[in-house]
What does this fold into?
Amino acid sequence: MNLSADGTFERLQRILSKEFEVATDVIAPTARLDSLGIDSLAVIEVIFRLEDEFKISFPQDPGELPTIGALVSAIDQLVAQQRVQAPSKAEEL
Amino acid sequence: MRRVAVTGLGIVSPIGNGARTFFNSLVQGHSGVTRMPDELHPRLNCRVVAPVAFDGAAHFGPVRLRMLDRVSQFALVAAAEAIADAGALFETGDRETTGVFIGTGMGGAQTTDDGYKSFYEEHSDRVKPYSVLLAMNNAAAGWIAIDHHLLGPNLTYSSACSSSAVAIGEAWKRIASAELEVMIAGGTEAPLTFGTLKAWEALKTMATEDPEDASASCKPFAKDRSGLVLGEGAAIVVLESWDRAAARGARIHAELTGYGLSTDAEHITRPTVEGQARAMVRALESAQVSPADVGYINAHGTATLANDGVETAAIKQVFGTDARALPVSSTKSMHGHLLGAAGALEFAATVLAIENRVIPPTRHLVHPDPECDLDYVAQSARPVATLTTAMSNSFAFGGTNVSLLCRAIPG
It folds into this structure.
């Protein structure tokens, strides 16, 4: 099991249940966001919150994020990318 | 023209929430004006305001709450009360012929203030993603339609301090002209933010604090008046075609009989006697009543030096020799100036006055101004068993003047 992805899922689960009124037990990797009551507008607020939580920045167009699993993958990808980018920026200085 | 009934009232105000509580406070002369705590916005010099005791979390869940500026929270609570007060309003359908007309001067001022704070003070680019949706002036009207599934026209009027009187007047026209059956109309305002208060302070129209009693700082028509006190809140009314209301056996608070609208077209802030008088005359004409029929005027009465003398002169111009015997009061002495919500709140006060046959007082009028020489119902409420027709005046920066007339239900 990928430990990093597991941690991401749990943190996402905690945010969605505490701040977005989603019941913990229905938050599963295959669950569709719209079925959890998170529509296309609400996703924008979720992303804003996740940017603070994971210290990442989503692109202007975050692309398709139909499921919890897709969101977790996107977070992990951005965390990996943006961690790699930081030292390379420092080298430029 | 069809007759228009007022069948629902909803109030969120500095002197209490709920129409009954609001009117009881008015009659008892309670003031909602208070000095803000020293630790709140210490850079403000004008420290008297009329805030609402209101906890959004008591009405909305956390997700919903993050989508609603205080201004929309007030409006939704007042609209829900008004619609419930109207009793089985949509039992016979008509959601497609029900419109929502709301007035607001400043919309989601707190959201705007918060956004600028994060840009300029905290040097952050992290602006909350719903800022546009919270701050836009028509948010309150949109949410009311969504919550109650109202499919008719949804409009927001902004003419500063007469915004919600315009909303009610225009709503009246839609029913009177048989275009629509039911209207949810009124106003909402939540301007007690640091930025807004500072801007009003700079305009030098704010009341100085009464050194002995902060709650007495707003003194309309008094010699020692020093300006307005900003307040917050919402007032929403349900208007309905008379025949529809009668057919479903609705309890009718009053009949909305006339609407007068005029423009000063002279100065951006200074009111004119002619402009105010023209609004009153047009309201009388549209209701087809004579000045002598009017038994009470709820004045605009801001307690600014400019307004109160001009409004007094305008009333004298319209009502002539009857003016001196005509009770006129400014309830702003108690609830402050709600800007875009003021017209609706005072229209509700006027409706409740004629329904209960009690005229609310002008509080804190102890030292009369020779220039203001009408009967202002100083200090104490006055029961008037014969009260049938009353007027509510709302005037504004920008020059949009409104008078609304209503009539009591016999009995």
